[in-house]
């Protein structure tokens, strides 16, 4: 269901996230009260442009927010993983157009990552956890593949912060398979992060979007 939902709406996916059309701007501003572009800049600023090491981006999506960042990260080796072949196809086209030689795209499931323990120096997950069916498993797997001292950062939808957004998620996005319940509250999300990363966790929320940064002990 989730794969079919994304396939049908792929044409408008980037427009919605970036708010670059008048209707998507209204959607982001008045329903969510957030600016996804500003949130993306904040998250991506957590990773320096001169980062040296291996990065896992899951889900990579269409790379609409990350492609320009990755072009500047010339010393990094980046693996972009997504469950959706349609997302990967668009990301691949974008990577080719921008000549991103440091980005490798792979299809896979965050609940069963196809990598050995401690494979990555950084794991990035933007707008992912609200679509992952088994959220605790996704936290466990991203933790498993991250090296000790590695950076885990990203953002995702949390419930309980903005009633009108929660209603829209429940009655539209969940039903269409674009989001996957159950969704975490801020407290639940922070507790999960702390269970894995201890005190090395920083979180804040922009209304219904949680922004997080953690270091693996």
Describe this structure in words.
The protein is α/β, with parallel strands linked by helices and 217 residues long. The protein has a 7-stranded mixed beta sheet, with helices on both faces. 41% of the residues lie in helices and 23% in strands. The longest helix is centred in the N-terminal third of the chain and has 17 residues, at 2-18. Helix 4 (67-72) links the parallel strand 1 (53-57) and strand 2 (76-82). The mean pLDDT is 91. The protein is globular. It has one domain: 3-Layer(aba) Sandwich (Rossmann fold), CATH 3.40.50.150. It contains 8 helices and 7 strands. Helix 1 packs across helix 2 (22-32). InterPro entries: Methyltransf_25 (IPR041698), SAM-dependent_MTases_sf (IPR029063). This is Methyltransferase domain protein. Keywords: Methyltransferase, Transferase. GO terms for molecular function: methyltransferase activity. Residues 55-150 form the Methyltransferase domain.
Structural class assignment: alpha/beta
- The number of domains is 1
User: What is the name of the CATH topology?
Assistant: Rossmann fold
Distance between the termini: 37 Å
- Our count of helices gives 8
Give me the CATH architecture, please: 3-Layer(aba) Sandwich
What is the assigned CATH homologous superfamily? Vaccinia Virus protein VP39
SSE string, helix = H, strand = E?
Answer: HHHEHEHEEHEHHEE
Largest sheet: 7 strands, mixed
Organism: Tannerella forsythia (strain ATCC 43037 / JCM 10827 / CCUG 21028 A / KCTC 5666 / FDC 338) (Bacteroides forsythus)
Domain Methyltransferase: 55-150
Keywords: Methyltransferase, Transferase
InterPro entries: Methyltransf_25, SAM-dependent_MTases_sf
